[in-house]
Amino acid sequence: MQRYERLRQIRRLDPDRDWLAIYRLTAAYEFPWDLTRALELALFRTYAVPSIGQLLARTAELTERAQKRYDDTALLLDTVVEHGFDSVQGRTAIRRINAMHRSYDISNDEMRYVLCTFVVVPKRWIDAYGWRRLSRHEMTASAHYYRALGRHMGIQDIPGSYDEFESCLDAYEAEHFAQDESGRRVADATLTLMASWYPDVLAPVLKRATVALLDEPLLRAFAYEPPGPATRGLVRGAVRLRGRAVRLLPPRSAPHHARDNREIKGYPDGYRVGELGTFPTPGLRGCPVRGAGGAE
To answer: Is residue 8 part of a domain?
Structure first.
């Protein structure tokens, strides 16, 4: 298969009808690494909303049990990507996602905003750092895909197109991003988690490199010291160089799923989808982060 053959395959499909097939090709074949990194940064954006950061800090899922929370989120969402809503696995994953949030006070606006991050942030990341830009077919398919997840999660007033998702995200962030101690604490814990995947000696460098990938609104919300132009240029240039290198490689011949990621540490002997995630204690009101994935 030639490097752009799968893109040509995507363009032969109808994004309003075949959006699940398109999204699977994008997520599992074309950009699995990029989508993983982009969704990690999408989580950072949610911490910059004080109401979300405070709830996340209160549950301690991302401060005291960060690796498990990361693993469970990635595995549950990717189960739906791989199997779809109509499969036993997909239905089980959706039930777990919904059960985790049913006990918590989460506004529809917050839920919709987090859904927007999973549509918009990957597109922006791939356009900046991927081996090619995201096609219009893929953008349309992504919007359909997350609209479907939102409906299965009971989210109301979901944007109808990629452009509407983007406008919704930008408007919400302009109104709600603010400095908050809880959000900073969750962001710090996430940086520590990401650094833990590599040798300890690299931790300070990796944390600084991750901060160099954050935009100005996030830096202000977390009160992080902005990286210097040299650091930012080096880090972002290195990620772009990685994308150019991938462009020269043969296309992926087998799908790559979340369970294949080296960052997933908690289930060396396998897992049951129905046992993933949190099981909130009755009476506790808080919020693990909400996410996306699925089929109409």
So the answer is: no
Closest CA to 279 of 61, 51, 58: 61
Structural domain contains residue 281: no
Give me the residues of the chain with pLDDT under 50, please: 283-296
Residue 153 phi, psi dihedral angles, 5° rounding: -95, 0
Residue 103 has φ and ψ, to the nearest 5°, of: -85, -5
Task: Look at the chain and report how many structural domains it folds into.
Answer: 1
pLDDT on residue 259: 94
CA 106 to chain centre: 19
Residue 10 within any structural domain of the chain: no
Taking the C-alpha atoms of residue 113 and residue 53, their distance in angstroms, rounded to an integer, is: 13
The residue type of 119 is V
For residues 174 and 34, give the distance between their C-alpha atoms in angstroms, rounded to a whole number: 26
Q: Which domain holds residue 81?
A: 17-264
CA angle 55, 124, 167 (to 5 degrees): 65
Q: Is 282 left (phi over 0), alpha (psi -120 to 50) or beta?
A: beta
Q: Which two tokens stand for residue 223?
A: 């009160």
Structure confidence at residue 100 (pLDDT):
85
Compute the distance between CA of residue 198 and CA of residue 195 in angstroms, rounded to an integer. Answer: 6
The two tokens of residue 62 are: 């991302």
d(CA 75, CA 67): 12
Rounded CA gap, 128 and 239, in Å? Answer: 9
Q: Which DSSP state fits 39? A: H
Residue 233 lies inside a defined structural domain of this protein: yes
Q: What pLDDT is stored for residue 278 in this prediction?
A: 80
Q: How far is CA 187 from CA 82, 127, 259, 284, in A?
A: 29, 24, 24, 22
Predicted model pTM:
0.91
User: What CA–CA distance (Å, rounded) separates 238 from 242?
Assistant: 6
